[in-house]
Amino acid sequence: LKGNKAKKEKVVTREYTINLHRRLHGCTFKKKEPKAIKEIRKFAQKAMGTTDVRVDEELYSLVTVTEIPEGGLKGLGTQVIEEEE
């Protein structure tokens, strides 16, 4: 692998359905939204194998509604962002 230091990574987009009802069972109402964001980040870190996880505004607005749908949230997309040096 000599000379291949600048490895280009492809942009990866995957869709998952996260069962937040199971992950937030027994959580009080006021703590539900911050815990949901933490659980989404934790799921994305495990699924994608990276610690740099950013929640999109659209997904954040879906979580901050008064009720989280029992069927879960669909459409978790992640991307690998290459930083220029």
Automatic annotation (TrEMBL):
InterPro entries: Ribosomal_eL31 (IPR000054), Ribosomal_eL31_dom_sf (IPR023621). GO terms for molecular function: structural constituent of ribosome. GO terms for biological process: cytoplasmic translation. Belongs to the eukaryotic ribosomal protein eL31 family. SMART domains: Ribosomal_L31e (SM01380). It comes from Phtheirospermum japonicum. GO terms for cellular component: cytosolic large ribosomal subunit. This is 60S ribosomal protein l31. Keywords: Ribonucleoprotein, Ribosomal protein.
